Description:
The structure is a single chain. By secondary structure, this protein is α/β, with parallel strands linked by helices. It has one domain (7-360): Alpha-Beta Barrel (TIM Barrel), CATH 3.20.20.140. It has helices at 66-69, 78-88, 100-103, 110-128, 146-158, 182-191, 217-238, 241-244, 260-274, 285-289, 305-311, 333-338, 345-360, and strands at residues 7-12, 34-37, 43-47, 50-52, 92-96, 135-140, 164-167, 170-171, 174-175, 195-197, 250-252, 294-298, 317-319. It starts with 6 loop residues before the first strand and ends with a helix.
Amino acid sequence: MPNSPVIDADGHVLEFTIDWEGGLEEHLLPVAPRIVGVETGGSRFLVEGKIWPQPWGKGRGAGSDIGRASVRPGGTDPAERIKDMDQEGIDVAFNYGAVVGVGVSGLENAELAAALARIYNDWLADYCSHAPDRLKGIAAIPLQDVSRAVAEARRAVEELGMAGVSIPSNVHGTALHDPSFYPFYEEIQRLDVPLGIHVGPGIPGIPMAGADRYDNFFMIHIFSHPFEQMLSVISLICGGVLERFPKLRVAFLESGAGWSPFLLDRMDEDYEKLSHMAPELRAKPSEYLRSGRCFISCEPDETTLPTVVSLLGEDHLIYASDYPHWDSRSPDSVNLLNQREDISPRAKAKILGGNASRLYKLG
């Protein structure tokens, strides 16, 4: 499809070359991120005396090992990233953090969280400046302190040119529809950038579904991503956030899309019988998910993708490479999606670029 740009709605950078200490005040240096080895093998960040991500079981934390991720130099080197994008056929990539960049809201120290967000966002802006038409940054936000979150979102978008903001599915267990977050949503709506909901198991301060009963990364990784996104959808839709902030655009990322048809039916069925418990809603929950303001990233080889296209609609799905994570399909993800015969060329063009262009307001 030569006339259809390919937009990676959720790629990643890797934070382990950032000079965290260089941007921190002296009293915060003892809790600055540093890389350490762990007994289960590999390496992790140590932040506030806690391991990020936390390793589980006897497995070696596959997928959360910083050292293993480093085999893709494009995660820290933008010139190498452009080469990888060219190889895969990606025109524009939107970049989220991998650990600290998606986990700052889990820190206990709000001052440290705001400082690390500033350092990370400055670094990411510099990374993207190598090819500003092709590399776009998504800002880290310290949401445990809403006033600091508002200030950093404003700085990141208006001064650094960030294309959106990233938050987790909860903050220290507080759901996303909590009224304390309303000033933040108001500011994101004013800035007219999307809100990317990005989860990652093993970040202290951000509880993940399933982590309370499994001690095996394999099991937690299967469970936590889609269920945390479903919880986020329920908060933002059934909790009235999208009704209260009608211009807010949201992307639910890195969890596949196969969960969405189930949730559509489940939300509408309960709303039919329990609408009095959702007084802010002015329509069925499924109508909000199909409103043109919600987008869900899909895996290029999901077997359920044709069903999702049929039931959710082709206008709400976005392509994501998940580069350079251990479970990414790079450098084959574009081809895997493009070569499918069970999805129409029109739907593929929208998923590979058209929908993300609307989400991020490109061109």
